[in-house]
């Protein structure tokens, strides 16, 4: 049975130091290296009439730009934050898909460090954008005091909205991404292990292995969908938070 120990493997290098390096970091480095190499090769060979690989990358960028960035932030603000949002999307997508790649078999986002870092990066981005737009005091008022609310309600609303800005948003981004990738990994391991156990049981239980195997394949496909969906949701929420911070009205 899978346990949480899978997400905290023994050290490969520098055990017991702040620079400890284990399988999770190795997976992340491999993913980053592959993504950088592939994108650099595609960019260096870019053509007016794109090939298959270039078309896939361009379609993904157009999807993020058209579906998330322009629809949420508009053309001017979208152009400003497009590099950040596209980077977030591709990084999360590639790290998530590592969980279904044979030999890696672990999403880079299934340990809290990376989801937390991405969430805090998003937090800093929308706070800085809001402060630049409204000033420090103006941004706090903009986020915590929506217009049209009876003044006595502000006594309750201001602390709730402040807590949402400084804690709940980035914490929910972290937990949502982490929980989905951990749950997906555990489900795949359970059904693959169950299928193997039934096949090797040497009893009539072997008859159940095709069903558990089919479920394992289904979960494998579902995990690919979840990997893409979580990248989309994280990027969409990041764009929404930026829009809320930089809008003229709450």
UniProtKB/TrEMBL annotation:
Q: What is this protein called?
A: ATP synthase subunit a
- Provide the primary localization: membrane
Q: Write out the transmembrane intervals.
A: 26-44, 81-101, 107-131, 152-171, 183-207, 214-242
Q: Which GO terms describe its molecular function?
A: proton-transporting ATP synthase activity, rotational mechanism
How does this protein lie in the membrane? Multi-pass membrane protein
Q: Which domain of life is it from?
A: Bacteria
Q: Which UniProt keywords apply?
A: ATP synthesis, Cell membrane, CF(0), Hydrogen ion transport, Ion transport, Membrane, Transmembrane, Transmembrane helix, Transport
Q: Which PANTHER family match?
A: ATP SYNTHASE SUBUNIT A (PTHR11410)
The subcellular location is: Cell membrane; Membrane
Q: Which family does it belong to?
A: Belongs to the ATPase A chain family.
Family annotation (InterPro entries): ATP_synth_F0_asu, ATP_synth_F0_asu_bact/mt, F0_ATP_A_sf
Q: Which organism is it from?
A: Brachybacterium alimentarium
Q: Which gene encodes it?
A: atpB
Question: What function does this protein fulfil?
Answer: Key component of the proton channel; it plays a direct role in the translocation of protons across the membrane.
Report the GO terms under cellular component.
plasma membrane; proton-transporting ATP synthase complex
